[in-house]
TrEMBL record:
GO terms for cellular component: plasma membrane. It holds the Pfam family 7tm_4. This is Olfactory receptor. Residues 47-296 form the G-protein coupled receptors family 1 profile domain. Keywords: Cell membrane, G-protein coupled receptor, Membrane, Olfaction, Receptor, Sensory transduction, Transducer, Transmembrane, Transmembrane helix.
Length: 321
């Protein structure tokens, strides 16, 4: 039964609570998936926190690339934490209610982290371009002050974009129905529930997608065009492979993130696509934050070396005492 609060008279009602349909309809499957998603969320927290701590503690990793990587891990933690805890609790509930304010807050954090990740991936692509295209000037160009300004710009752009989206979308009038066909509050599923004209909100979402989402993607594409040109100028095949390897992790992250996000947000029409969107949403909202630290760590000799040095220090510490 829709939850509503009366405003004015009995014929004028507004929704003060939404109902999430969740990931699955079958209660038995939800109970089976609960430990799976709980383990995924815990691994996301552990791996990303471990990577942040490792980068902060090891002097060999005090470079712009790992500086940006630590912020990517922080974004992934916040992104996953805005969805997973509520989704896990909803697995154990028969009716998945969420208040209007909680829904708006969840979307604000989601949009903030999502937009910030787009901008950060663009900043990381630029960093790789400078490292490969101008290796001798790299240290002079990518100074710490510039890196901090880039991160501030990333967070600021994501924050302002998310704030404008949230205010315009949740300022609409919602009179029912109040059922969201998803397992979290996402704007494409919320806007159709509005009883007022959503044109301005749709325009804001479109502009945010164009300027932040596709704008960042364009920067990434241009950076890799220049990277490819720079690599082709390298005479040695060994040096070409080495240069390409420094970009492989970032390329994998960009492909996973943009591939799934574009697949979700470019179509919402049929009931079949709604189910497909839920699966793809699990990939970009739940799995990618867990996979990113692994993508950057498994074949990265510098991170492996830093981990070995930290383990040696931990092993020798009791002997010194």
């Amino acid at each position: 039964m829709p939850s509503r609060s009366v405003s004015g008279d009995e014929n004028h009602t507004s929704v003060d609570m939404f109902v999430l349909l969740g990931l699955l309809n079958q209660t038995e499957l939800q109970l089976i998936l609960f430990p799976v998603f709980l383990g995924t969320y815990l691994m996301t927290l552990i791996w990303n926190l471990a990577l942040i701590i490792l980068i902060r503690m090891d002097s060999h990793l005090q470079t712009p690339m790992y500086f940006f990587l630590s912020f990517l891990s922080l974004i992934d933690i916040c992104y996953s934490s805005s969805i997973s805890p509520r989704m896990l609790s909803d697995f154990l509930k028969a009716e998945k209610k969420i208040s209007f304010i909680a829904c708006a807050t969840q979307y604000f954090v989601l949009a903030w982290m999502g937009m910030s990740e787009c901008c950060l991936l663009a900043a990381m692509a630029y960093d790789r371009y400078v490292a490969i295209g101008s290796p001798l000037q790299y240290s002079a160009i990518m100074v710490p002050s510039l890196c901090w300004r880039m991160v501030a710009g990333v967070c600021g752009s994501g924050f302002l974009s998310s704030l404008v989206q949230t205010v315009t979308c949740f300022n609409l009038y919602y009179c029912g129905p109040n059922v969201i066909h998803h397992f979290f509050c996402d704007m494409p599923q919320i806007l159709p529930l509005s009883c007022s004209d959503p044109f301005i909100s749709q325009l804001v979402l479109f502009l945010a997608a164009v300027f932040v989402g596709f704008g960042s993607f364009l920067v990434i594409l241009l950076s890799y065009v220049f990277i490819a040109v720079s690599i082709l100028k390298i005479a040695s095949l060994k040096e070409c492979i080495k240069a390409f390897k420094t970009c492989s992790s970032h390329l994998a992250t960009v492909t996973l993130f943009y591939g799934t996000v574009l697949s979700v947000y470019l179509h919402h029409s049929s009931q079949h696509s709604t189910k497909q969107d839920k699966v793809l949403s699990v990939v970009y909202a739940i799995l990618i934050p867990m996979l990113n630290p692994l993508i950057y760590s498994l074949r990265n000799t510098e991170i492996k070396g830093a981990l070995k040095r930290m383990m040696k220090k931990a092993a020798h510490r009791p002997q010194k005492e």
